[in-house]
C-alpha cells in the first residue's frame, strides 16, 4: 500500500472539519431558564413562592429516577459530593475501606478520602477497562465497607458479580455512574442496581447543567438519610429548624434543573446517535491491524457511549509509542488523547491515604498502569455526536499513522 505523508511531516491531514460543539442547546433551555428567573424561586429548598410556578427540581428528579427505574433521585451540587454522601449514607465511616478501581476520574477515590474513608485499589480487566470482580475478594478486609464500581466511558461494570461478592461479605455497593446516564446491565438501568448510584451533571457529561449531580437508590431508608445529609440534617417531614444529624447544604438550584429538563428532551436522540457511531467506529477499528477495541459484555443491554476508548494492541507497543502515536493522529485532525493516570500512582491520593492510615501502602495495579502508559486511547464525548464521515476519518487517520511504524 502506498504510504501517504503524515501531517506531522507536512502531509495533508485526513480531516480538517471540526467535531460538534458541546453542549447542544436551543430555545427550550432559554424558555425554561426564563420561567425560573421570573418565578423568583431560584434555590433548591421546598419553599414555594408562587402558586403559578411548579418547581423544576422535583420534576427533574422524578424524570431522572424514572429514566433509571429507580425509586428515589436526590439532586446535589456535583458528582463528587454525590459519591461522598452515598458512602456516608450507606454507613461507611472514617477509617473504613472502600474498594475502587484505579482507572477512573480522581473523584471516585477523592470522594472517599473527603470523608476520611480509605480507597483500596483493585485493578481493572484488561479487555473492558472495568473493575475486575475476580480481584475484589482478595482485597476485602475486616474494615471494608463498600465497593464502588465505575461504569467507565458509559459501559456498565459487571454488576451481577459485584453484587454477589458484596452480598457474601455484607458490603454496600455504590455505582459511580457519572459517565453512564441511561446505560443498563441485563435490562436494569445503572444507578439502582447497587445500594446507591451516583451521577454527574458536570459540563462534560452526556446530560449536563454545567454542574450538578444525582444520587439514586431504591432503598427508602437510605434515600431519607442521603436527602438529610444534603439538606443540613433536616428530615423531609420535620420542622424547618429541626436538624437530626450533621449535614451540609449540597442542593442544586432551580436554574440547573431547568437546563437538565431541557437537555433530557435531547438525550434519547443523542444516545441513539452515539450508539450508531460507536458501532460503526468499532467495525472500522476492528479491521486495523495493531488496534484492539474493547470487549463488550453481552449483559450490557445499553451502553451510554460517553467516551470512546480503544487500545494499541499489546503486541504492537514495542513498535508504537503511545505519546508519539497521539501526536501524529492529532496532527491528522483527530482529537485522541492519553486518558487517566491510574489513581494508585497519584501522589495526592497516596499521601492522603498515608495520613489517614499511618501506613505506606503501595498498590500494584499492573493492568491499569500498562494500559495507561502504553495502550489506552480516548476520543472525547463530542466525537460520537459527529456524522458517519467523521467515524471514517477517525479510522482512516489511525490506519494512516499505524502504517508509518
Ligand atoms: C465526572 C466524574 C465524577 C465527578 O463528577 P463531578 O460532577 O465533576 O464532581 C466522578 N466520577 C467519574 C467517573 C466521573 O467521570
UniProtKB/TrEMBL annotation:
The keyword Iron-sulfur does not apply. Gene3D superfamilies: Aspartate Aminotransferase, domain 1, Type I PLP-dependent aspartate aminotransferase-like (Major domain). Keywords: Pyridoxal phosphate. Signal peptide: none annotated. Pfam families: DegT_DnrJ_EryC1. InterPro entries: DegT/StrS_aminotransferase (IPR000653), PyrdxlP-dep_Trfase (IPR015424), PyrdxlP-dep_Trfase_major (IPR015421), PyrdxlP-dep_Trfase_small (IPR015422). Belongs to the DegT/DnrJ/EryC1 family. PANTHER family: DTDP-4-AMINO-4,6-DIDEOXYGALACTOSE TRANSAMINASE, TRANSAMINASE. This is dTDP-4-amino-4,6-dideoxygalactose transaminase.
Amino acid at each position: 500500500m502506498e504510504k501517504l505523508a503524515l501531517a506531522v511531516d507536512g502531509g495533508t491531514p485526513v480531516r480538517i472539519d471540526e467535531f460538534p460543539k458541546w453542549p447542544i442547546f436551543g430555545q427550550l433551555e432559554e424558555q425554561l431558564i426564563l420561567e425560573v428567573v421570573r418565578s423568583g424561586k431560584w434555590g433548591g429548598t421546598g419553599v414555594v413562592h408562587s402558586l403559578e410556578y411548579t418547581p423544576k427540581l422535583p420534576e427533574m428528579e422524578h424524570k431522572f429516577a424514572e429514566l433509571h427505574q429507580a425509586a428515589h433521585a436526590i439532586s446535589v451540587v456535583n458528582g463528587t459530593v454525590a459519591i461522598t454522601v452515598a458512602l456516608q449514607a450507606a454507613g461507611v465511616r472514617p477509617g473504613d475501606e472502600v474498594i475502587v478501581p484505579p482507572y477512573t476520574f480522581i473523584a471516585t477515590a477523592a470522594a472517599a478520602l473527603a470523608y476520611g474513608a480509605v480507597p483500596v485499589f483493585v485493578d481493572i480487566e484488561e479487555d473492558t477497562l472495568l473493575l475486575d470482580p475476580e480481584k475484589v475478594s482478595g482485597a476485602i478486609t475486616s474494615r471494608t465497607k463498600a465497593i464502588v464500581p465505575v461504569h467507565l466511558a458509559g459501559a456498565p461494570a459487571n454488576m451481577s458479580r459485584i453484587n454477589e461478592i458484596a452480598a457474601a461479605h455484607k458490603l454496600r455497593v455504590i455505582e459511580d455512574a457519572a459517565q453512564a446516564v441511561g446505560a443498563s446491565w441485563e435490562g436494569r438501568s445503572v444507578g439502582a442496581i447497587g445500594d446507591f448510584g451516583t451521577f454527574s451533571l458536570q459540563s462534560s457529561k452526556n446530560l449536563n447543567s454545567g454542574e450538578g449531580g444525582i444520587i439514586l437508590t431504591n432503598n427508602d431508608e437510605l434515600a431519607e438519610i442521603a436527602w438529610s445529609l444534603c439538606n443540613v440534617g433536616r428530615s423531609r417531614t420535620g420542622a424547618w429548624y429541626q436538624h437530626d444529624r450533621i449535614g451540609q447544604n449540597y442542593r442544586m438550584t432551580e436554574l440547573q434543573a431547568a437546563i437538565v429538563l431541557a437537555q433530557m428532551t435531547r438525550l434519547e436522540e443523542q444516545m441513539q446517535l452515539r450508539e450508531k457511531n460507536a458501532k460503526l467506529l468499532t467495525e472500522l477499528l476492528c479491521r486495523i491491524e495493531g488496534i484492539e477495541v474493547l470487549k463488550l459484555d453481552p449483559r450490557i443491554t445499553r451502553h451510554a457511549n460517553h467516551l470512546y476508548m480503544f487500545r494499541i494492541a499489546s503486541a504492537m507497543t514495542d513498535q508504537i509509542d503511545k505519546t508519539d502515536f497521539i501526536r501524529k493522529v492529532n496532527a491528522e485532525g483527530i482529537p485522541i488523547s492519553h486518558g487517566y493516570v491510574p489513581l494508585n500512582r497519584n501522589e495526592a491520593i497516596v499521601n492522603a491515604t498515608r495520613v489517614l492510615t499511618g501506613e505506606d501502602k503501595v498498590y500494584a495495579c499492573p493492568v491499569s498502569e500498562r494500559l495507561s502508559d502504553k495502550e489506552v486511547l480516548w476520543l472525547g464525548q463530542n466525537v460520537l455526536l459527529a456524522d458517519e464521515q467523521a467515524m471514517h476519518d477517525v479510522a482512516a487517520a489511525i490506519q494512516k499513522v499505524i502504517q508509518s511504524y
